[in-house]
Amino acid sequence: MFCVFFPHMRLHKCLLVMSHEAAAQSASLVFVCVHREHYDFLETLAPQLNGKVLVDVSNNLEKNMYPEANAEYLQRLIPGAHVVKAFNTLSAWALQNGPSDANRQVYLCGNNPEAKQAVAVISTKLGFTVQDRGSLSAARELEDFPLQLFPEWRLPMRLTVGLTAFFFFYLLTRDVIYAYVNEGKDISFRIMMSLANKVFPSVSLILLSLCYLPGVIAGFFQLYRGTKYKRFPDWLDRWMLCRKQLGLIALALASLHVLYTLIIPIRYYVRFRLAGSTISQIKNNKTSPFDTTMAWRTDSYYSIGALGFGLYLLLGISSLPSVSNALSWREFSFIQSKLGYLTLFFCTFHTYLYGWDRFLYVSQYKWYTPPGYMLCLVVPSLVLVFKLLLLLPCVDKSLSRIRQGWERTGPEKDSKKSLLA
Amino acid sequence: MFCVFFPHMRLHKCLLVMSHEAAAQSASLVFVCVHREHYDFLETLAPQLNGKVLVDVSNNLEKNMYPEANAEYLQRLIPGAHVVKAFNTLSAWALQNGPSDANRQVYLCGNNPEAKQAVAVISTKLGFTVQDRGSLSAARELEDFPLQLFPEWRLPMRLTVGLTAFFFFYLLTRDVIYAYVNEGKDISFRIMMSLANKVFPSVSLILLSLCYLPGVIAGFFQLYRGTKYKRFPDWLDRWMLCRKQLGLIALALASLHVLYTLIIPIRYYVRFRLAGSTISQIKNNKTSPFDTTMAWRTDSYYSIGALGFGLYLLLGISSLPSVSNALSWREFSFIQSKLGYLTLFFCTFHTYLYGWDRFLYVSQYKWYTPPGYMLCLVVPSLVLVFKLLLLLPCVDKSLSRIRQGWERTGPEKDSKKSLLA
Amino acid sequence: MFCVFFPHMRLHKCLLVMSHEAAAQSASLVFVCVHREHYDFLETLAPQLNGKVLVDVSNNLEKNMYPEANAEYLQRLIPGAHVVKAFNTLSAWALQNGPSDANRQVYLCGNNPEAKQAVAVISTKLGFTVQDRGSLSAARELEDFPLQLFPEWRLPMRLTVGLTAFFFFYLLTRDVIYAYVNEGKDISFRIMMSLANKVFPSVSLILLSLCYLPGVIAGFFQLYRGTKYKRFPDWLDRWMLCRKQLGLIALALASLHVLYTLIIPIRYYVRFRLAGSTISQIKNNKTSPFDTTMAWRTDSYYSIGALGFGLYLLLGISSLPSVSNALSWREFSFIQSKLGYLTLFFCTFHTYLYGWDRFLYVSQYKWYTPPGYMLCLVVPSLVLVFKLLLLLPCVDKSLSRIRQGWERTGPEKDSKKSLLA
């Protein structure tokens, strides 16, 4: 029989007909749904709870509110009971509606294996999947789960904010402030669309290349060390763990870039300028001839960009949990690596086509600074060059062997390996 | 040993070598894959089926075809057997290919716990997740599952159709019919694009605000009652349960609005008008000067709209089951609440920028009716104002305390609470 | 107790303190994480491994590297052990981080039920879902899983490449080469955008109609045979199995078509032509009048296209694993069938509107070939006509009865059916 201690008596009338002592006595499994502040009330029931399984489902309002985890505190109060921490990561929603639409995973921990087993059986019956996280000392970790707010997104978001701020102020200076200072023109209205549409793609391209840079660095590390069985430095490990987040932010910015670009022809400013150019052609009575190179260049630029964005979207879709779960490991790495580098190549090439031969003209280097698109081309170009180096037949062969477990060993390592043979 | 009764003998030769009686005798678990109309044939085997587990997998062609559920009817025919309703919600596809690509969930119900356990063991072995729905009286509910056609989408869809029809006829009257009656011009071609592109965003914005209105109302209810432990009225509960659907329809309409807007510059009508404006400027030999305020206003309008749509998409992606399952409760509510209100604010602001100072001009109120964008601003503006009220420090503090379980209690409630202490 | 044999001793110090023999002796479950080339080393431990459960987690670098599966080879080397193939389909990532973010499915096979049960228990404890694939002879299949590279996408991809190549060269000849040969104009720059934007929608529409053609063919087969209990020919079965992939590729091409279409107004070529048309109107001092039919036609064309693409996207979203899992069978077939045919109708109608009355003009049949859009209309039109035939009341009634299990039987079949009654 179960017994449930809820914080509010009048909601659970069953408990009113039985004294707390009788309830505690008769149940073998007790769900403690009381706020931590009221745990001391349970202490009075300690004799009746002796040998019982106490399921602690409590959560705190913020991290590190108390020196010890709620479940550990409960265990200390009633040393004779078997405290199991469970269900706290589930929302009330999931508990009420069953696991069909919400997270199925139930994490539990506790010091007594039988007690954990009893809770696991109930969870499975309710349709949840159980994951045992070990002894009660893991309770703190479990209690921190529902309080997490995108911990793995923090580093990529900070990087994004930093890069965005840098490009914004850099381009603001070069475009708006330069025009104001040198030509006395107020073109501040360009901030909303033109400037934003330069900042978004620049940051997006850099973030995308930062997804692939750690893989390239790891390759060089492995080549240099001659083994894959040495841990990477911590910064590289942490970097590799946030590649997915970097890629998704890059995709979001690329989508905004696409949207902002497609809005261009309905902008008042653009329509005004186009009409002005037509009017001036008529007034001066000379029409500019059609430039086939220009047509080729701009069409290629748009076409490559559209294909690159298509691949970008494909990468994003394949990183949806339900899609990536349906892929085999080889399929996932094909998409994320092969198609990923193709995306990076398309987007970098798109940016080079945008620049075209403009890097030759001195007028482009206002106040001796390079245009924004040049700055954002540095990292992706480096990544692509390094990747090409790794793809050279001789290098690729060594790296493949290392990744299959081969080691470039010194004499003392060989002796150890001979143990195996 | 299993035995399976299929509707067509010649497909299952194993059954032809054995008499029905022998088959029923030798198996401990019998899958009944016969149409309900043929159940009476099983009655003749009742003695052999005594004490056996009968798994009823049948479905009906429509709801309420029969007075009792198929499984209950089977149980009545063969009272000695243990009927378990199961597997009927799975498609033939899932049964043939295993649960890797399709729904893993198997619902079962029955009166005999051991019989249910036996079926549960088989389901688990086949890779499915089992959810026990209780006694055989739940069979009707299980038999209705495969016949469901988006029950939770019905209310939001009706609302959408109603709002769309209203805005369509309202705008048709104000735009097309007004122009025909007052100016004798036939601009009915505008129905396909211009009118649609006014209806979609109006309905979308209202639906989005209707996602957030029940939350605000619930807040005021809780403040007024001083407790969170009282049930909301039924209409509010039902409204809150279809917020996700409201939001997704709003997103679909917003996407159409974006698509229709981006198509604008390739429309024949728009190109004709732009060329006409250029030609008339030349003929009259006066060019309109560049209007910086206009540039600021329109660019802000587009930019805010694009950002709002980006956030909208983010909300949509995070409501995909596999994505929302990967989020902690706090993360999910951060996205759906904080980012949701930001989206609503952006989209409302976008609409205000569209209106700008036009509400000042009498010519806008054709036939004394306000333009469509004004009508659709009412609900979102109210929601944002109410939300701001709830965010006032003093109100927010009370509400937070109530949501953490605090109650503004009268004397008789206090006495009950003292039982806990 | 577990024992794990890893390829590198120095990484697993626990094993250094114990001889291999002692380790093998003391464990009841041995994880073999050694490359296949080193399996012979285990042969020396055969006596100690007698009666033990050996879990083979190995994978090969490519298919068909060895005549027998790794697990079967291991079983042959140590006949006294109970070899279970398992965990090889999981990535190192999933094993390290638990199943929360990656594929939960563990496939296992083996000849000894108790051994499999022991491995299943461990897998479940680790939070994985177990699927038993039968005896050890299934090991080869399991070892091929991680080496699979989109096997079900191969046929649709080949079809797509073939159709794309055909339409590309067909349109290249008719557009670019024709203009060069007959008029001496070089319009090769149109390859990047204009031509691509004709190839994508053509192939997309054909692929979409190929999704629905097999269903129509199957309907006629069932009508002709008078039963649903006869297997379809192999080619039809294989075709039906790749409908999802056909549809998703069609959606990808349709998205590119939308993107390429929306880019049109920012193209240099288009802006040049529009300015040129305005200039020539002024120079010739005659403005073309507004054509209401043209406005209706083009706006309908864009509007239908946008709605069709919206439905297309809906189909795509509903085929995401996590979304389709949340749908009942009836809901899924409503979307994929009813909405699918609506999408096909919208997209076909969109293409007819594009063509309009142009099929009447001889000038359209350059070099006596029909334009590309006519070619791509053949299959979808056929599918829609056939579907309409199947929807005729009398035909629909027969087909519904057949699909509910009714059979048009000859006398010898009737006698068999009477067995049931």
UniProtKB/TrEMBL annotation, chains A, B, C:
This is STEAP family member 4. Residues 203-346 form the Ferric oxidoreductase domain. Belongs to the STEAP family. One of its GO terms (biological process) is copper ion import. It comes from the Eukaryota. Residues 17-60 form the Pyrroline-5-carboxylate reductase catalytic N-terminal domain. It catalyses: 2 Fe(2+) + NADP(+) + H(+) = 2 Fe(3+) + NADPH; 2 Cu(+) + NADP(+) + H(+) = 2 Cu(2+) + NADPH. GO terms for cellular component: endosome; plasma membrane. It is found in: Endosome membrane. InterPro entries: Fe3_Rdtase_TM_dom (IPR013130), NAD(P)-bd_dom_sf (IPR036291), P5C_Rdtase_cat_N (IPR028939), STEAP_metalloreductase (IPR051267). PANTHER family: DUDULIN-RELATED, METALLOREDUCTASE STEAP4. The chain crosses the membrane at residues 201-224, 245-270, 301-327, 339-356, 372-395.
